[in-house]
Amino acid sequence: MLTEEMKTYAKRSVLCWLATVSEQGAPNVSPKELFVTEGDSHILIANIASPGSMRNMRHQPHVCVSFIDVFVQKGFKVLGEASIISRHDADFPERVKPLQEMAGAAFPVSSFTAIHITAVEPIIAPSYRFYPETTEQKQIAQAMQSYGVQPQTKG
Questions:
Q1: How far does the chain reach from its first CA to its final CA, in angstroms?
Q2: Residue 47 belongs to a domain with what CATH number?
Q3: Which domain holds residue 126?
Q4: 118 φ/ψ angles, rounded to the nearest 5 degrees
């Protein structure tokens, strides 16, 4: 399900957003800082400070994850089914490695959520649809101006 383009957008995204729903039907969206794609069919998200998300996924495993490159203003919405993997699970040591490498010593990853992907949809800023002259380069320049940042220079 995940193409190389989708994996690239995931790598370029600083955060992903995990949407869950409570037993009462209340939606919850939570930013997640440590996440990776695994193969073509999974996203792994470290459970660092996620008590609400964890509680919701135990009740209702159907979730949505969104990630976007804030400069280009494009990304993807991923629907899937979540499984919580703890250090007691046989596949934990191998699967947690890329998350723990990202976390370093800052966050011990004692569990993570493995999302088996069932559908993927693009996310695209309305400017691309309403203004055909919109390009990624124009979006990047506008975002850099809005955020007050400059491109990195080599050297």
A1: 38
A2: 2.30.110.10
A3: 4-147
A4: -110, -20
- Token duo for residue 39: 């193969």
Question: What is the rounded average pLDDT of the residues 95-122?
Answer: 94
Contact 81, 118 (CB under 8 A): yes
Q: Which amino acid is at 100?
A: Q
Residues pairing with 31 in the sheet: 17
The residues near 116 (Cβ < 8 Å, ≥ 6 apart) are: 41, 42, 80, 81, 82, 83
Is the pLDDT at 155 greater than 80, yes or no?
no
Token readout for 17 is 């957003």
The number of distinct structural domains making up the chain is 1
Neighbours of 102 (CB within 10 A): 15
Q: Which residues contact 12 (CB under 8 A, 6 or more apart)?
A: 69
d(C-alpha 22, C-alpha 58), whole Å = 9
Q: Which amino acid is at 99?
A: L
Look at residue 11 and tell me if it is in a domain. yes
Q: How far is CA 122 from the centre of its chain?
A: 13
Q: Is the pTM of this model over 0.85?
A: yes
Please check whether residue 32 lies inside any domain of the structure: yes
